[in-house]
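ok so heres the complex, two chains, lmk if somethin looks off
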Amino acid sequence: MNLMEILKRYRAAIIAFVALAVFMFFFPSFGPKAGASLLEQARTMLLVVPPIFLLLGLMDVWVPRETMMKFMGPGSGIKGPLISFAVGSAAAGPLYGAFPVAAILMKKGASFTNILIFIGAWSTTKIPMLLFEMKALGVRFALARLAIDIPGIILIALALKAVIPKAEVERLYAAAAAMDIKPGMPANSGPKMMKP
Amino acid sequence: MDTLILYIAAVVLFALSAIKDRERTKKAFMKGLKALEGILPQLLAVLVFVAVILAVFDAEMISRFIGEKSGILGTVAAGLIGAITLIPGFVAFPAAGELLRNGAGTLQIATFVSSLMMVGIITLPVEIKYFGKRAAIARNAFAFIFSFAAAVFVAWVVAL
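and the predicted structre for the whole thing:
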């Protein structure tokens, strides 16, 4: 990869950093706080994200597509949503950690509805967070939210499935399947996703 | 704590994997690294947005918007602030509890918590990378609308 390509790929990040510098220049009073939250977020991100990706690498090479199809695929029946809920709720880390996991699940053949349920569960029904919420906001508050979130997650998943065209879903699955291949490389030069 | 579990899981599983098949483990490691590098530009951009947003929307600012008797406007503000901020639950829940004890309404707090958890405007670049513009924006829009419905229900149950 040459320098221009790298610059192009990191364009958004570079613009963001420049914008941050401009912001700090014009609003110096926010400087220390912006700096502190930048460090705090960077710490979280740099600590949490790498192990997620390494574990995804393991999952990619070890979990056979057939296994995932059986548990979360289109023909998995009621098992699929239940497992999606369980896996999403047991997860650790912020929501942006869920998206790469979802991509691997797509690559391994999980159904789109189950992926959406998984994302919903990761976002809001995490078990460790529930205990925290009970302590801070009250048992009633936390349990009421959980009770409404479960149908809500299913509703949102079904609504998304209804509004997103099939062609777009297929495009996302194709992109997920080619995920570890650098952009611009022909798809067949990557590792085969299915074992012979 | 979460993070520690993640690292222990990674180390243990990689060790097991290496015992079983060294070549495959190497491949897994490289795949993980490559995927990580793939998302790095988006992650860095998100990082900066978060820093700015959190510098502006601190607890004081948030409580000004969704404090006592802030009504419908406060509820909408709570939803919007929740949608654009990215605060981990273990920080957000105690802060929200504090606001609640200082007179903020249950409806506003529940809206804030729901939209904080389910909607991620700042992290959209990451979400779009994996889910495409259409699905990412639709998911956030639905989750945003749902946050208000969920909050009405939570406020109702708490008031029972």
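quick notes: The longest helix of chain B spans residues 124-159. thats all i got rn
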